[in-house]
Amino acid sequence: MCYDDNARPPMPPGANGTAHGEDLVLTATDGNRFAAYLARPDQPTNAQIIIYPDVRGLHQFYKDLALRFAEAGITAIAFDYFGRTAGLTSRDEPFEFMPHVQKLQLPTIFSDVAAALAYLQTNGGQGRSTFTVGFCMGGSLSFMTGTAEFDLAGVIGFYAGMSRNFGGAGTLLDQAAKIHYPALGLFGGADQGIPPSDVQSFDEKLTSAGVEHEIIVYPGAPHSFFDRRADQYAEASTDAWKRVLDFIKAHTH
């Protein structure tokens, strides 16, 4: 599990706008009903972002993160992965996520992403530059979305694992060369679950494929360093926020 129930995203530097959030239930084209959370800025820019949670699905960390993006002027929607197998139940810590993770299939995840994107586009987001960002498993899925045709402006991943095979679709390393949007990857140098060689291989595959990208590794930072409680990694978190917001600004039309 990437974040526990007490984890909260750090505050983005310089963001002082106001925003409002609401819980949603969205429906994919196959009829799947799944939970989502929308955060709207009171003063929106021309950017919007889809947030991919960690392996536990949509919980409070990601609702708060959506609000932090919205306070920076970026409309944000976070969505849950497990509507098909766990319904609309809570994703608080007692939720046993792994049996549901093992049933995930990339095409149905993309179907839910399409529903989230459609909701954004039909609720004021038509014509905005769309980004994805994810954490842990969600980081992998954010990058994998970059292999599909979603008309994105960029894909972002925090501590994206390289070895998970999503229902036979291959791993992130298998698919890296197929990413065709600008990419930003952020990793902890002391992450016990992601070997530095995997990060280097990901970087090299993107370079070989001609994908515009930037890979940042924070020396000494562990998995899940991006947490308001982790004072010792506050500098890394501030830098990560700055890089994410700069990346979005640079690729927003």
Automatic annotation (TrEMBL):
Residues 1-21 are annotated as: Disordered. Pfam families: DLH. It comes from the Bacteria. Residues 34-251 form the Dienelactone hydrolase domain. GO terms for molecular function: hydrolase activity. Transmembrane segments: none annotated. InterPro entries: AB_hydrolase_fold, Dienelactn_hydro, Dienelactone_hydrolase-like. This is Putative carboxymethylenebutenolidase.
